[in-house]
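S1.2 Input.
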Amino acid sequence: MTAAKPALRPNVPHFSSGPCAKRPGWTAHNLKDAALGRSHRAKIGKAKLKLAIELTREVLEVPAGYRIGIVPASDTGAVEMALWSLLGARPVTTIAWESFGEGWVSDIVKELKLKDVIRLHAGYGDIPDLSKADPASDIVFTWNGTTSGVRVPNADWISADREGLTICDATSAAFAQPLDWAKLDVVTFSWQKALGGEAAHGMLVLSPRAVARLESYVPAWPLPKIFRMTKGGKLNEGIFEGETINTPSMLCVEDYLDALNWAKSVGGLKGLMARADANTKVLADWKAKTPWIDFLATDPAIRSNTSVCMKVIDPAITSLSADAQADFSKKLVALVEKEGAGYDFAHYRDAPAGLRIWCGATVESGDVALLTQWIDWAFAEMKSTLAKAA
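S1.3 Output.
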């Protein structure tokens, strides 16, 4: 017997972990003032880029002494700029527990070919022993592991009098989780994550300590133009005032400005974090009454409130092979997508089988609740099909 379909669908069925859902009430009309057909170096272009930096500082509560730059190639470009420009002066501690963090480790070891590297590693759903991070080394880590749903609980493990730099990929943490700026020297994120902006542009935030490293250290390898942040041994201040290295999309800039102004309207950083927490609570409440689902990160202290990863724990499914479990999860998501009730919430390709539901601030908690009803329906349908095939 087939299960009854839910009566209602989410108003906005977008649950992708990147690009993420647009902010509530978004329409293309919001971009009518974009400086299209104008140079980004014209007065209007420079003003909008500088405003994007100023609003980022205001909403994220970035300290006055930190530089904020708009850089090419999304969060990936921002991280690579930091790795290639700053590493090599000291030993490096890498901390990784999911695919993107492991990607930075690969770049450090295989591309930059650094030898003095301490690797702290944990599997999906867990986190390494952060106390083992060497404060004399440069430390590279993600604040929120987007593909595992695991975040660092805080920055208490980072020494206040560290000798090395901390380089933090915060792309699915910024605007949703409190970043301890005093403990962070490089922070990167992208527009298309927590605020649902358009893609292709990254943000790079540098502490005074990071700037001092840039001005006192020259890497042993050549730097492509797109990575260069200094001129004549001094920081290229223009990058951090809106003079971008390459040509940005002014349409994307306008969309980011719209997202930042919306963020201010919902209470700034505190309001954004509260919205993400409320969305994640919906899934926690669902898990509490649903015997076949659980969080991939079983410890609430390290559980993400943005890229929430969940696993199917029904014995009939867990007894299947890993490939069969992945196929089950993908077909469950496809069933919900076919009904127009939820899009792009399958597990990441390298992660364990299950669901990855974006709960950042641009998502409404009522839509998350409706999505869970559709997942319940799809699970019952899939279980029925599986039983008939047995």
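S1.4 Remarks. The chain has nine helices and 14 strands.
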